[in-house]
Amino acid sequence: MEFRVLGPVEAYRAGAAVPVGGPKPRTLLALLAVHAGRVVSQEQLVDAVWGDDPPEQTRAAVYTYVSTLRRAFGDDADVLGRSGGGYLLDAPSDLVDLHVFTTEVGAGRRALADGDIEEAAARFTAALAVWRGPALGGAQGVWAEGERSRLEELRLAALEDRVDADLAIGRGDALVPELSAAVAAHPLRERLRSQLMLALYQSGRQADALACYQEGRRVLLDELGLEPGQALRSTHDRILRADDDSDAPPTSRPDAAGPPVVPQRPSQLPFDIADFTGRSAEVAELTGHLSSEGTAVRLCAISGQPGAGKSTLAMHVAHAVRAHFPDGQLYATLRGVQAVRADPAEVLAGFLRALGVADAAIPVDLDERARLYRTLLADRRVLVVLDNAADERQVRPLLPGGAACAVLVTSRERLGALGGATQLGLSVLDDAAAFELLDRVIGDGRAAAEPDAAHDLVRLCGRLPLAVRIAGARLAARPQWKLSRLVERLRVQRRVLQELTMGDLEVRGSLALSYDGLAGRERAALRRIGLLDVSTFGGWLVAPLIDCSPEDGEEVVERLVDAQLLDVVASDGSGALRYQLHDLTRAFARERGEVEESEAEVRAACTRAAECWLTLVETAGQRMPHATLEVSATPSTSPYLDQDLADELLVDPEAWFDAEQSDLVGVVERISELDLTDVATRLAAALCSSRFSVRNLFGQWWRTHSAALEAARRVGDRDGEARLLAGLGWLRYEQDRFDEAARYYEQALEAYAHTSDAHGQAAARLSLSTVQREHGQLAKSRESLDLALAELRALGEPHAVAQAVHELGRVLTEQGELDAALEACERTLATYESFGDRRGTAIAHRSLAIVHRAAGRLDEAARRGEMAVDALRRLGDRLMSAYAVQALAKIRIRQGRGDAVRSDLLECLATCNDMQDGFGQALLLRTLGELELAVGRPEVAHRYLERSLQWWNALGLPVWRARTLRDLATALGALGDIGSADRTWAEALAIFERHGCREAREPRPDSVLHPA
């Protein structure tokens, strides 16, 4: 099929026109044809067809028009395809007239640059021949109007290029009618008028050529209040000089008879915007440097990310210092991020013309042009502004040699190889400047009237000047809108780039220029970082994302930094750099990823990255104290992380976790969205084992496990479901929400029944026994332990068996079977020591201290308690150190040395508060109450015990509540409230008897006895 947009929007099948419907389907087809071969997103289609008034069911409305077109296309319906959340017109470029036009124009310009004038003229003629009238005929809406203007500008530029070729050949006589009509249609277009003047001159009509100039000057003064520009004036002057030369042949080009150089004072700076805001420090630095005197050319280079305002700042500074350069100002945009960059030779030709060099006198060779350029500026005070440079190679030929000149360059990359340049890296605006810019662009004080919405708006724009300016311009054009309306629209992440478009200003387009200039690997890395949606990350991440070596990944990262698409934000504890994408860059990267990446590619890349994170998490966990669940004895390995790199990253595991923590949570959520349940489950489990449990990071723990559990249930992954349910049981246990913990463990056991994971089932049963013990369900705890021990012994897992025997020792202690408890805890200690498990050994010493204390062997209890405290403090385990100190304090109270441990107990209470450990706070408050009872201060003891009792009530732990009631009864007796003391003791005793606790068999303490 053939598609035409350079005239009425039409489609042809086998040479016959196909009906494409009314304005809306024509607009949709036009958009797809303009972007033929590329996916156009659903949002772009909706905005083009409906603008600011989309239907409620946009997806259905688009599909209706697409279906209509497909039916019209008949057997060729598959030319209109769906891909990556959008649609594309899958037509060869030679069957779309716009792409035929651009191809021919490109070939013509290359021929012109190569000096093949006849070929250039033929190519431009062929390009213009495909036009059938005003572009996009029958399409409607803001997009169509804007695109129609853009295409008309392309047509006129091609026409002017063709006329240049024809004039060079000497066809001026034939051009006069065509150019006369074009100038009449576009009277303010100075290049066309200049060409008409030359055509008239070549036709021997010098007087008409000069009259054409005077008419143009009158129009410009009347319409714009401006004099003709330098190029038009130069043409006029050359015709005058040639007309004065009686020997000049009547058909020769005017510049052939003129002198090679007529000094000119160029003034080429674009306008300085009236609402320039902020950047006062940068303006002061640049103006100071450019206006200072020196012995060499003053050179300043501004770099920054797309939309940071580099060009705006450069123009503002250039106008501020122009008085220091009375011999003129030269300006060129070098199109550094566009597909076709400005050729330094062509830029030099333009500069030489502006400086008064006749076309015939401009050298052909680049080096010769550069030498003439430097000669002309050697003793002149000229400012040269080079906007949007690609690299140093493009800039160097354009640097003047005279010390009186100055050069101001902008580039998205830092031009570090420009020797002697003052480098200025431009970041986003600060909050105040961004707010001020928004306020000035909107006008009428609307930002000040909605300050909260205005601040939200600049935050959503990432304080990027281009984005803030576009948002302000949209609001200025819509006085009926409240700022909060645009805020809500920008909060929809998938629409944010579409919303930040106004006229010819577009954040997406600005970013696309940088993106298109990248190599394939860099583009893939950017897309996949966006799809992974991390806020900051280490540079190592790129290697697994694009499946390359760490060395190649590092080069890709540096290239993205050079392109100002990645920012270096900080270094982590190892000194490794961390990077981030600006919010809008991340939105663009994700948008491109959704269009260009297949689902299989995304899943593979995210799996590789997550496996690397898993390796690092497990390795870091082995190098720092960790909690009850095992960190893998043998960490995972990854081909993208050799041992040296892992060691470098994890030189300080705590600092590495601090840097990666929030992104690790996001990664688990992201890979869970992709249903990568195996690696999501393993990563979530490793995180809680090595980090979240140690720091009591309950919110992060819940988010990772909930996300992975939802994915596991969605895909029917019972193994993952069981492991995650067990992890949530542990979370609720750590949060002292014991009823919920038990329910999760019971659900985990039910899920494990459908799997082959015998170890997981035994571990979940062991954990359930701990919850049951804490809840005072000692008989149930023994039953669970008996089953778990049998399972673990059958599996031949001595470390897990030691954990189960340790738990049995605790239950036996609670039940008062102290000899059996002692034997179990000593067996546990020996096993932990044989494994070199320092943390397990320390906790076993604490359990032995509790057994010896219950048996009245206080000296041995104190020795064991001191060993536990010392070992846990050396390990840096704050929470378990607090528990060990509490156990030792109970012994000291029995020994009559309670005053010596008061400050330690208060410090441990603060630790448990910091770490959100309700159980620990309740336990320490009770111990402080016992201490005050022992030293004869029952009124203070009463306050501590009441607070402890409130915690036990909230936690729903009856046995611990009973122990505190027993102490409270003693305090009440000491205070003389015998009736309350008796009732409180009776309540405690009933609980002890109901749960089979050893305290039921112990005598009631009174006000002079030390509490048990």
Tell me about this structure:
This protein is α/β, with parallel strands linked by helices and 1012 residues long. It is built from 45 helices and 16 strands. The chain has a 5-stranded parallel sheet with strand order 8-9-10-7-11, sandwiched between helices. A 3-stranded antiparallel sheet has the order 1-2-3, with helices on one face. Helix 34 runs parallel beside helix 36 (798-815), helix 38 (838-854) runs parallel beside helix 40 and helix 41 runs antiparallel to helix 42. The longest helix is centred in the N-terminal third of the chain and has 28 residues, at 142-169. Residues 245-260, 627-632 and 1007-1012 have low confidence and may be disordered.
Instruction: Provide the residue-averaged pLDDT.
Output: 86
Cross-sheet strand order for the largest sheet: 8-9-10-7-11
| End-to-end gap | 93 Å
The percentage helix is: 55-70%
Structural class by secondary-structure content:
alpha/beta
* pLDDT < 50 stretches: 245-260, 627-632, 1007-1012
Write down the Rg.
Answer: 40 Å
Number of helices: 45
Question: How many β-strands, per DSSP?
Answer: 16
Note the overall shape: elongated
How large is the share of residues in beta strands?
A: 5-15%
What does the main sheet amount to? Answer: 5 strands, parallel
